[in-house]
Design brief:
Rossmann fold, 3 domains, seven-stranded parallel sheet, six-stranded parallel sheet, 12 helices, globular
């Protein structure tokens, strides 16, 4: 790296491009790493965020909302009411919040009250999520809850309406909203592609004008440490809204062909009682391979992964009970709620599965009030630390239920 002091002391050696490159800080993503800095017409530009180009939100024609009431057709639990009030008070007191709540606790409902408050006070509200599929589903939920408000849905390929009373968007679209949101809520902070992505994290910070609320069932230690600082609050909810325990996974150790026999038996078993089944696999190749084997024994299934273009149609058909099982990668790890869903994690000892991801997948089961139970199986050739840690944390969360009851 060029020594700036040495250059200044010997002007003949000064290379203006080197000085510019070393002193340049990207105004969008705060990048200052010279290897991500290029030049055009003698002026530096950032290569790290160059792909984030497009229209930004129109501030001039913004019209504050006239209505703000959240219309909820079901009662919240006492625990949900408590957290919802705490989150709103934290926002009023100009504090950032982390909602640390178990899968199926009803995290979205916990922010309805603070959204109401923000809309009532003519504040700009955003709700960011890493994955497009979940953004679309959440926007529909918010439209039903805030019936008198404009809920805009922004993601790649859907950017014609950037304004709205509540803007639901992927984290990749936050670059369109510099210093914009008075209240920015973000769910799935530990999900790909946001997790550990410095560019998206900087885009998030840049878009916040006021204060933010993060939500997660499995926050990292670094996030928990961050919220121990002043003007930060952690709100914990370790019980599901229906007050039933989280289904605790069972470890099944099988080898070779016995793994496939176990899966086929479970598919047949659940088909007899009309219970849908997700079979999670660690990779795209394995999803294709496993489905190719299983469909020879049961034709009532399908498979989804990021390379399947019609996956939204397949998922919708699954909801309509056209399939009894789906072989899936992590694309269905979050944001899915289905009645009586059962889960098997095939090759759960794969390195891709840590405790956090196993907990998230397990959390797909037993989410509904009238179907709070179900099976979760960790199917592998060995027991891993991730599997044991996931079970331990689920049991710990269930222990809080006994205290509440």
């Amino acid at each position: 790296m060029t020594n700036i002091t040495e250059l200044i002391s010997n002007p003949k050696n000064i290379n203006k491009s080197s000085l510019l490159k070393e002193s340049f800080v990207c105004p969008v993503c705060k990048n200052s790493d010279p290897k991500y800095i290029g030049y055009k017409n003698g002026q530096p530009y950032c290569r790290r965020c160059i792909s984030f180009k497009g229209d930004e939100v129109d501030l001039i024609n913004y019209h504050p909302p006239k209505n703000y009431e959240a219309i909820i057709s079901y009662p919240l639990s006492k625990e949900q009411e408590r957290i919802a009030n705490e989150v709103m008070v934290s926002f009023i007191n100009k504090q950032d919040s982390l909602i640390y709540a178990v899968c199926g606790a009803g995290k979205t409902e916990l922010v309805f009250k603070v959204i109401e408050y923000a809309l009532e006070h003519k504040l700009k509200v955003g709700f960011a999520i890493p994955r497009r599929d979940v953004v679309i589903e959440l926007a529909l939920r918010l439209e039903k809850t805030f019936k008198n408000n404009i809920v805009s849905c922004v993601y790649g390929g859907n950017t014609s309406l950037l304004n709205g009373d509540i803007i639901v968007l992927t984290t990749h679209q936050l670059y369109r909203y510099p210093t914009y949101f008075d209240l920015l809520i973000m769910d799935e902070i530990d999900a790909f592609p946001y997790k550990d992505n410095p560019l998206l994290i900087e885009m998030f910070k840049r878009s916040v004008k006021g204060h933010y609320i993060l939500m997660s069932a499995t926050p990292s230690e670094s996030v928990l440490s961050e919220f121990k600082k002043p003007n930060h609050q952690i709100h914990t909810l370790f019980t599901r809204y229906h007050m039933h325990p989280l289904p605790c996974p069972k470890i099944i150790i099988k080898f070779g062909i016995d793994k496939y026999i176990f899966l086929i038996q479970k598919i047949k078993e659940y088909e007899k009682v009309n219970k849908p089944l997700f079979i999670f696999v660690p990779t795209i190749d394995e999803s294709n391979l496993l489905y190719g084997i299983l469909k020879r024994f049961s034709k009532n299934g399908n498979r989804v992964n990021s390379e399947v273009n019609e996956r939204e149609e397949i998922i919708e058909d699954f909801r309509k009970h056209k399939y009894s099982y789906l072989v899936t990668t992590a694309v269905l790890e979050r944001g899915v709620t289905l009645k009586n869903l059962q889960v098997i994690i095939f090759h759960s000892d794969h390195e891709i599965y840590n405790a956090a991801s196993l907990i998230q997948i397990s959390g797909r089961v037993g989410r509904l009030y009238d179907a709070p139970d179900g099976d979760v199986y960790f199917l592998g050739s060995k027991t891993t630390k991730g599997m044991l840690d996931a079970i331990s944390k689920i049991k710990e969360a269930n222990s809080h239920l006994q205290v509440v009851l």
